[in-house]
Amino acid sequence: MTTHQNAYDAAAGDRSRTHTWHSRPELTPEILGMSGLEILQAYLKGALPAASMMSTLGFRLTEAEEGRVVFEGDPGDHLLNPMGTVHGGFLATLLDSALGSAVMTRLPAGTSYTTVQLGVNMIRPVLAGTPTLRCEGIALHVGRTTATAEARVVGAADGKLYAHGTTTCVVLRP
């Protein structure tokens, strides 16, 4: 680290952010026997731990029903890029989570998926002080080998559109 960098760090003041997560549970026969929707509903009830990525970036699953999920996320200055806006990766990850989870709600027990294509359109900047964002994902097609979904990120309080996206997932059957 350079002398200039040390002076900057001391002047700016250090901040910290602590988050806690639970390790992913072992895939027991009980979990393997659950449909995608049942797994997400177990997360909502606290019977299974949420994915660690959610606590890392500050978002959470709030609703899950067949073909539809809702996540909410809280921007903050810990997510800023060099331009002073929230990094687009936050929105992309929020969208990818909602898109994939919407697909997951329609998968039978023992079946998984992974994203093979993610399209993201960012409409307006997210700032450190932007209030809670809401991301709703809808499964459009879930077939034997592929699935597609769409999602929108809006202000939870005002409904302003911040981003929208689509995905294509590969369906991984046992």
Largest sheet: 6 strands, antiparallel
Structural class by helix and strand composition? alpha+beta
Work out the strand percent: 25-35%
Uncertain runs with pLDDT below 50, 5 residues or more?
none
Tell me the distance between the termini: 50 Å
Shape: globular
Count of β-strands: 6
Mean pLDDT: 91
Strand order of the largest sheet: 1-2-4-5-6-3
Helicity, as a percent range: 25-40%
What letter string, H or E per element, gives the SSE order?
HHHHEEHEEEE
Radius of gyration: 18 Å
Helical stretch tally: 5
Short description:
The protein is of the alpha+beta class and 174 residues long. It has five helices and six strands. Helix content is 27%, strand content 32%.
